[in-house]
């Protein structure tokens, strides 16, 4: 780093980023990648690679698998446009989940009804019976989630599908920790009852 003495912080950051290999970028924390991604597409691509799957899972559980790809694209376009305004008051993943929920809400508002059986994933071609069973189970789970009040569905999805802890969910949704726990507990109970009525043992 002796060669970079006397270089301005901005110039240092750009020079450092130019020297990073793709492997080195994967070891950076989100906060470091965000700072670099403001000016460097490779750093932004690493953020997308790191978080796209969780964004897609959250979107698919909220708007359905068929519409999830469009939501993911909208989310990362929004992230790219607003990176300069990200102040780091919350973690990047919390900010990202909030953007994803907002994008999902917009997608749902544009449709009169939600299609629950969009493009189910296919199992291995040698097991069509299993593929059908999995598709049917996913459709019923999606229908069960959609039967919940929006606040319970949001909290339960963030917990069970996005894998956030209670504190992270509270930050994403802007609610108290106790409220988050209550919504998740009520949502789980309601979903269990719905699935039981549908003939599925939770």
TrEMBL record:
Q: Which Pfam families match?
A: Sigma70_r2, Sigma70_r4_2
Signal peptide residues are: none
> What UniProt keywords apply to this chain's record, in alphabetical order?
DNA-binding, Sigma factor, Transcription, Transcription regulation
Residue ranges annotated for the RNA polymerase sigma-70 region domain, each copy included: 47-112
> Which InterPro entries does the record associate with it?
RNA_pol_sigma-70-like, RNA_pol_sigma-70_dom, RNA_pol_sigma70_r2, RNA_pol_sigma70_r4_t2, RNA_pol_sigma_r2, RNA_pol_sigma_r3/r4-like, WH-like_DNA-bd_sf
Q: Where is the RNA polymerase sigma factor 70 region 4 type domain?
A: 140-191
Stated family: Belongs to the sigma-70 factor family. ECF subfamily.
The entry's protein name is RNA polymerase subunit sigma-24
| Species of provenance | Deinococcus malanensis
Q: What is the lineage of its organism?
A: Bacteria, Thermotogati, Deinococcota, Deinococci, Deinococcales
